[in-house]
Write a structure and sequence with these properties.
Elements: E1 6-9, E2 12-15, H1 24-39, E3 46-49, E4 61-64, H2 67-72, E5 77-79, E6 92-98, H3 109-119, E7 120-131, H4 135-146, H5 162-170, E8 174-181, H6 200-205, E9 212-218
């Protein structure tokens, strides 16, 4: 796997993440996503699943499918499978997942949510940010792949819908927040020009395109 950029392990896709910093606007958008996620997290110990090359600032521990990523982060991290978390029950107060569920076979996604509920303490929160393409994203990304503007498409299982992500979370949690994110200016995020980052404020003011969904769930109190 050392020469590959992605692989399939037990059905789930694991990949060496691209260098998002090459795309200044996209990098700033991802930083904004991290801020939105942090706003939803309670105090306490936080686990992140599939953190890629950079763990969320609020994460205390990470679990990652691509082993070399574990070696590059400066926080405690393990290589492992989110479908069978190597942690005891009630170990964390919060859990973060950024843009990874679509790499897992649909039949296995509920198990990840159940495992998240198991390792979270009562009243703990899960915060998931997942790509949930509307028509605009499907059309623009499809064109970008055909024109060679984007790297190889590894989304072999397809993205989830906003409803699908919400339903997954609601099976084990009480949904506390749901927010659609995306702007027509996502087209500019392909650019490698530093000037593209100046569009962030306008991007923030034009959030009417379905590109991602942020879903936050809270584990019910024991006996609730």
């Amino acid at each position: 796997m050392s020469d590959a950029t992605w692989d399939v392990q037990d059905g789930a896709i694991v990949e060496r993440p691209r260098n998002v910093r090459k795309h200044p606007l996209l990098h700033r958008i991802y930083e904004r996503h991290d801020e939105l996620l942090a706003e939803q997290l309670p105090p306490g110990r936080t686990l992140e699943l599939a953190f890629g090359q950079h763990m969320h600032p609020r994460a205390d521990v990470g679990l990652e499918g691509w082993p070399s990523n574990v070696e590059t982060v400066r926080k405690p991290a393990l290589a492992g499978d989110a479908r069978a978390l190597p942690f005891a029950d009630d170990s964390f107060d919060a859990l973060i997942g950024r843009r990874f569920l679509h790499h897992v076979p649909p039949v296995d996604r509920p198990e990840i949510i159940r495992e998240a509920a198991r390792v979270l303490r009562p009243a703990g929160r899960i915060a998931l940010l997942e790509g949930t393409p509307g028509l605009y994203r499907k059309l623009t990304k499809g064109a970008a792949f055909r024109l060679g503007l984007l790297e190889e498409d590894t989304d072999i299982y397809g993205h989830l819908s906003e409803t699908a992500v919400t339903d997954l979370v609601s099976e084990s949690f009480e949904v506390a927040e749901k927010r659609t994110l995306g702007s027509p200016l996502m087209l500019a995020s392909i650019s490698e020009s530093d000037a593209s980052a100046r569009l962030l404020n306008l991007y923030e003011r034009t959030q009417f395109v379905k590109w991602w969904t942020l879903v936050v769930g809270e584990r019910p109190e024991s006996g609730a």
